[in-house]
């Protein structure tokens, strides 16, 4: 299944707001799965020096990730398909 990254720049993001955003994304993903859309939030990374978050998703389509982020009220600057590489795959 394709992987995507949503890149966000949120300079005012606190730790509490970060956890709240994660809870909303998690809840909305579960709701979409219940509706038959197999979209999954995999993980997010917060880069304090740049106030960016990179949120990774697995989904059948880019549109499913757009829908998930809209439901969660999470804006993003870019949404890109990514190729995964791990130490085990090289």
What does this structure look like?
This protein is an alpha+beta fold and 90 residues long. The protein has a single domain (3-83), classed as ORF SCO4226, nickel-binding ferredoxin-like monomer (Alpha-Beta Plaits, 2-Layer Sandwich), CATH 3.30.70. It is built from two helices and four strands; from the N terminus they run E-H-E-E-H-E. A four-stranded antiparallel β-sheet has the order 2-3-1-4, with helices on one face. Helix 1 (15-34) crosses helix 2 (62-72).
The CATH superfamily is known as ORF SCO4226, nickel-binding ferredoxin-like monomer
CATH architecture: 2-Layer Sandwich
CATH topology: Alpha-Beta Plaits
Strand line-up of the largest beta sheet: 2-3-1-4
Number of helices: 2
CATH class: Alpha Beta
Q: How far apart lie the N and C ends?
A: 19 Å
Strand content: 25-35%
Q: Unreliable segments (pLDDT under 50, ≥5 consecutive)?
A: none
Give helix and strand order, one letter per element, not per position.
EHEEHE
**Could you tell me the radius of gyration in angstroms?**
13 Å
Question: How is the biggest beta sheet arranged?
Answer: 4 strands, antiparallel
Gross morphology: globular
- Helical fraction equals 25-40%
DSSP strand tally: 4
Number of separate structural domains: 1
Secondary structure category: alpha+beta
Average pLDDT for all residues? 93
């Amino acid at each position: 299944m394709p992987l995507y990254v949503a890149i966000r720049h949120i300079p005012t993001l606190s730790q509490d707001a970060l956890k709240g955003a994660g809870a909303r994304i998690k809840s909305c993903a579960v709701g979409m799965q219940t509706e038959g859309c197999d979209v999954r939030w995999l993980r997010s990374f917060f880069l304090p020096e740049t106030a960016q978050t990179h949120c990774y998703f697995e989904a059948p389509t880019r549109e499913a990730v757009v829908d998930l982020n809209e439901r969660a009220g999470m804006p993003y600057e870019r949404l890109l398909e990514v190729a995964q590489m791990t130490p085990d795959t090289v």
